[in-house]
Amino acid sequence: MNVLFLSISLGSGHIKAAEALRKYIVLRYPTAKTLIVDTFKYINPLIHTVVVDGYLNIVKYAPQVYGGLYRMSEYRKNVNRMSRVLSQLMAPKIHKLIQDFKPSIIVCTHPFPLQMIAYLKEHYNLAVPSIAILTDFVNHPFWFHNNIEAYIVAHDYIKRDMIECGISENRIFTYGIPIAPEFLKSAPKAQVRKELSLKNTLTMLLMGGSLGIGDIESAFKSFAKCKRNIQIIAAAGKNGSLEKRLNDFGASCSIPVKIFGYADNIPMLMDGADFIVTKPGGMTISEALVKKLPALIISPIPGQEERNEQFLINSGAAVRIQKNTNIDSILCQVYDNKLRYTQMKEIAGTLAKPDSGHNIVNLIEKLINDNEKGLFKYSFNAL
């Protein structure tokens, strides 16, 4: 089995989804040949730098501009057409990669490489079954193609939305975003806190994703000033300056704090926490849901993360924290009220998809077998 993953490193969630699924494939097929490609970087490092740096700068310094562009891409067909034209120009190099690697199946965790695959299927007679994994709790027109064999989505409401947009129901699977197998194991809170040299008391896990984006510093200071027994675990990601500022402020805190940079023990940190305080990236939220960890949402990126936030709040697994929110008041409502806290944990558990990785591997097996039997016809027209 040869599995080609095509993704883009706009944030870490898209690549992490591919890495997580690869682990399940290797668990079942130890001799499988897998390749994860950061698509823009592979095609042209300069394009990668321009796109990724441009995205990060807009998100950090002009998030409302990004939100406006995102909304335009949802409703204006000319934006979608422009994206597809750019993908078509870059597709031939990916076609050469496919010819060399000879995948049994292609998995896309970002819509841009998926557009390339859809184009290659239509114009280059590419006859390799392909899967799209949506890494947020929201649909988007950039994903819409009717010659992609399967779509993996996080929830039934996304499936209904995609059906209304013209994607056939039998190609949509509500398996959820795949998370690493490490998140399926758990340890008692008291044990984790002891290992981290923390007290066995109310614990907040602050995260900003691998890039440390979001107003984590303000949230950290707000929780540190909280008038109750509380402690903080903070993961600053690859944001070294944020890590330093948190350490400087934490040194003068009267409450226990534990500061990490880029942490590779996130499953353990989640086990030790009572809440996760984070911007609502699809991968981080999926991991927290499996841990039945209620979320306090900060700094959603306008666009897909705002949609993720709406889903979580409407479902009852999260609440929003604004910059000047009274933390004591929030905790009185969602933690001191044991019924509310228990419900948030239970709802998180019902939204979780812990079997996602295994289910997707089952689907991969079926698609490969069906393709070998000649059950697919690759003559669809793009939507």
From TrEMBL:
<keyword id="KW-0808">Transferase</keyword>
<dbReference type="GO" id="GO:0009247">
    <property type="term" value="P:glycolipid biosynthetic process"/>
</dbReference>
<dbReference type="InterPro" id="IPR009695">
    <property type="entry name" value="Diacylglyc_glucosyltr_N"/>
</dbReference>
<dbReference type="InterPro" id="IPR007235">
    <property type="entry name" value="Glyco_trans_28_C"/>
</dbReference>
<keyword id="KW-0328">Glycosyltransferase</keyword>
<dbReference type="Pfam" id="PF06925">
    <property type="entry name" value="MGDG_synth"/>
</dbReference>
<dbReference type="InterPro" id="IPR050519">
    <property type="entry name" value="Glycosyltransf_28_UgtP"/>
</dbReference>
<dbReference type="Pfam" id="PF04101">
    <property type="entry name" value="Glyco_tran_28_C"/>
</dbReference>
<dbReference type="GO" id="GO:0016020">
    <property type="term" value="C:membrane"/>
</dbReference>
<dbReference type="GO" id="GO:0016758">
    <property type="term" value="F:hexosyltransferase activity"/>
</dbReference>
<feature type="domain" description="Diacylglycerol glucosyltransferase N-terminal">
    <location>
        <begin position="14"/>
        <end position="179"/>
    </location>
</feature>
<feature type="domain" description="Glycosyl transferase family 28 C-terminal">
    <location>
        <begin position="204"/>
        <end position="346"/>
    </location>
</feature>
<protein>
    <submittedName>
        <fullName>UDP-N-acetylglucosamine--LPS N-acetylglucosamine transferase</fullName>
    </submittedName>
</protein>
<comment type="similarity">
    <text>Belongs to the glycosyltransferase 28 family.</text>
</comment>
